[in-house]
Amino acid sequence: MLAFRKVRRKLRMGTICSPNPGGTKTPEVCNADWMASLPPRLHHVPLSNLAIPGSHDSFSYWVDEKSPVGPDQTPAIKRLARISFVKKVMKKWSVTQNLTFREQLDAGIRYFDLRVSSKPGDADQEIYFIHGLFGIRVWDGLMEIDSFLTQHPQEIVFLDFNHFYAMDEAHHKRLILRIQEAFGSKLCSACSVESMTLQTLWEKKCQVLIFYHCPFYKQYPFLWPGKKIPAPWANTTSVRKLILFLETTLSERSPRGSFHVSQAILTPRVKTIARGLVGGLKNTLVHRNLPAILDWVKTQKPGARGVNIITSDFVDLVDFATTVIELNELLQEDRALAKC
């Protein structure tokens, strides 16, 4: 039965994404329209009750080792980074994704974890993504996402701006203006979480929920407060401790009033980095542990007290997005049973 469901879903989604304008590689399995392809009964389920795949440090598929070290790092790291080798090592531990925004979207990722910063000496107040080292300009990332959404008008994304570095009021205003310019009428105004269903958003032609973990959200109706999307962090290198943490925080999840992010990620300690200095995050910590984390995901069930958004590092290393999306089949089965 499970094998049949997988075949059916792949037929419905398609196995190859259409070539994208940037000419970048595409995932083997395409989930570019998975929300549009959900059964009609799920169109009226709150998004907070659906299983939605997300990525951790979503923008970090590229970081610039030639740029200054970011303001998110300690003074000691900044001093060490004057040695070119140190920046090369930092890059190996700062990169948490292989796929660009467009490739992640094609693969089915709908939640993006975003950390942003101004850059020292940058007179034009441009804002960049950051994770130890500076990534691409935020504007470029937003335009890449908007291009996808225009081509896929029934897909919804969550953009979670949760860390801000070296940003004063002028920087925030510039960033928020960029968000408005990029998405325009696609932006969804903050309101009741329970009212956010696919059907409601499709009727309003809204596709973008922006979460802004800073008091500036109060000044703009399209910015959702960060408290509406809690993302508890295990901060461990142990898969066992991570899974225990995920189970505990899910059991404590409020059934109403917010979305919920399960961060299915491992976080390196200083000694982890020292042991795997040249190997980097992917080879030292993620590659060998991700299959076990995915096994936990397969046992989960979405719903008011179940999983909602699940994030991972290197979402392409395993069939992460499809595994999360297929959990929604359980909601369909529940509704069918309730009808009997």
UniProtKB/TrEMBL annotation:
Q: Which InterPro entries match?
A: PI-PLC_domain (IPR051057), PLC-like_Pdiesterase_TIM-brl (IPR017946), PLCXD1/2/3 (IPR042158), PLipase_C_PInositol-sp_X_dom (IPR000909)
Q: Which residues form the Phosphatidylinositol-specific phospholipase C X domain?
A: 41-213
Per its UniProt entry, which superkingdom is the organism in? Answer: Eukaryota
UniProt xrefs under SUPFAM superfamilies: PLC-like phosphodiesterases
Task: Output the Gene Ontology terms for molecular function.
Answer: phosphoric diester hydrolase activity
Which BP terms in the Gene Ontology apply to this protein?
lipid catabolic process; signal transduction
Going by the UniProt record, its keywords in alphabetical order are: Hydrolase, Lipid degradation, Lipid metabolism, Transducer
What's the protein here called? PI-PLC X domain-containing protein 2
Q: Which organism is it from?
A: Odocoileus virginianus (White-tailed deer)
